[in-house]
Amino acid sequence: MKPWSVAAVVVGGGLLVAGAAGAFLMFKRPLTVLEWSSRRALVKAGLAASTVDSPAGPQMVWRGGGGPTLVLLHGAGDQAGTWVRVAGELAGQYTLVIPDLAGHGRSAPRTGPIDTGQVLAGVEAVVEREAGTGPVLLVGNSLGGWMALLVAHRHPEWVERLVVVSGGAIRGQNTEVKVIPTTREEARATVAATRDPGSPPVPDFLLDDIVRQARSGPLGRFAATAATMGRYLLDGRLHEVNVGVDLVWGESDRLMPLDYARRLADGLPRARLTTIPRCGHVPQVECPQAFLAALRGVLREPVP
């Protein structure tokens, strides 16, 4: 799970552990504990796990609820459990489809570098299956927003409408933020850049686990393929996206600031920007109720 995502849940009191063993794991391996607990919570919200075959290998997908199909895509270093704080309420209105992106969670490849093409291929396999009965609502956060834009660009017939949450397919994020921190202080600065300044401080034991997992976990495995990512960007080609796009952005996000969102909006032929005050890069975790209100608001409106 993303360091900024786990920070919001742990510090916000959303993680429960039982007994001395649970407390020990919580302090020594909080990222692992949170992934486990968030996935259990998806089951409690009525979602069931299955796999979808893809060119990247089997992709794990959580599915449940009823109504129009809403596909939720998480960001780099994260996993399907990032949506757990909003999944229960959304499942009352939509059939939720929440994959682990390729190389993340329980989706293949389980080892080695994660290429952008593998992530895209995994998402395409999931969306193609769901779009067999009609186009879907596609929502992506961070890397998930990038993949959602690429799917809409390549397969507009699969997508009824698109919501991009603090993500995109053009260059320009804050290069001063070290997404692969090597020290506790670098981790503190990274997490701070993705959250509102008013959010509770992140404990040192969590920062230490962020550093420990940074290079060996999915975030580091994905970052290892940075040299090949350029071929999957849409700089100068956003006008080719023929699906209406709602951009939903945390106003406090300094990893991908509002200026980035405005550049996306200017380049897309049909786009609308909605912001969430006092919220950062992963609003479904940091401020779930405000995110739900924003998401429901844009989905009630006509497609841009």
Structural features, described:
The protein is α/β, with parallel strands linked by helices. It has a single domain (3-300), classed as 3-Layer(aba) Sandwich (Rossmann fold). It is 40% helix and 15% strand. The chain contains 12 helices and 8 strands. The chain has helices at residues 3-12, 19-28, 30-44, 84-90, 116-130, 143-154, 184-193, 204-214, 218-223, 258-267, 283-286, 288-300; strands at 48-52, 59-65, 69-73, 95-99, 136-141, 159-165, 245-250, 271-276. Helix 5 packs across helix 6 (143-154). Residues 6-22 have low confidence and may be disordered. It has an 8-stranded mixed β-sheet, sandwiched between helices.
Write the layout of secondary structure elements.
Blueprint: H1 3-12, H2 19-28, H3 30-44, E1 48-52, E2 59-65, E3 69-73, H4 84-90, E4 95-99, H5 116-130, E5 136-141, H6 143-154, E6 159-165, H7 184-193, H8 204-214, H9 218-223, E7 245-250, H10 258-267, E8 271-276, H11 283-286, H12 288-300
Parallel strand pairs: 3-4, 3-5, 5-6, 6-7, 7-8
Antiparallel strand pairs: 1-2, 2-4
Summarize the model shown:
The chain has twelve helices and eight strands. The protein is an alpha/beta fold and 304 residues long. Strand 1 (48-52) and strand 2 form a beta hairpin.
